[in-house]
Design brief:
Elements: E1 14-19, E2 24-30, E3 37-43, H1 59-76, E4 108-110, H2 121-131, E5 146-147, E6 152-153, H3 155-162, H4 165-177, H5 179-185, H6 187-191, H7 199-212, H8 238-255
Parallel strand pairs: 1-4
Antiparallel strand pairs: 1-2, 2-3, 5-6
Helix pairs in contact: 1-2, 1-7, 4-5
Length: about 260
Amino acid sequence: AVVSTQSGHYGRDRLVVRFTNKVIIAQVAYATIEGDKIVCDARSSELPRYGIKTGLTNYPASYAVGLLLARRLNQKYGLDETYTGVEEVDGEEYYVEKEGERGAFYCVLDTGLSRTSSGARIFGVLKGAVDGGLDIPHSSKRFPGYNTETDENNAAAHRARILGEHISSYMQTLLDDDEDAYKRQFATYRKEGIMPDMIEGMYTKAHAAIRADPSPAAKKEKPEGYKPKSYRRPRMSIQQRKGRVAQQKAAFLALH
């Protein structure tokens, strides 16, 4: 049966996650005949507002984007106080349960062409969205720390990945063994004054800041008389076109 969703339309909401070389994009969307309609949007380019100045495409950033999207969406529909999700990252498996008359916002993960291998960043976005209070069907089998032999999820390993312990460990290793390589690979971290022992605190503070104010930044007002830059060539008059053709003919004849 076709039922009305929380976003007020008939169909199914999707958590659409896409990655570029510089940005992680997470959106909740639904399909129409005219094309997808976006319900809510969050991007890793917004994370510097919350204290994450660099590393905007890694696993911890993926989690933060998912958390930002979930808190922003719940705030939009007045569900942010009812469905708070996991307020302190623990890496444990978590599923939203209905509280009161209104259920949690339900959507399904849209992976697109992204690879869904175990530990992939797309599951970081999923985990952040679930911990943020969205109802998304999933299992822990693709999360970092899951052991296929014992069929158990290592929550501590997943928490470490969310809080960037693998990054701080690698930073410290390079700092101890090859300072030149450390300066090359972590130049942006050094520029922002971020040391290995500051990584976890940076992410925990960012999670708290996201929960405190997930609303999008106010749009900058455009100055009066603003005209967007145009890359289209101005339309030529008939005289200009004839002159251009004559010039091209003369250039061709000169070469032959």
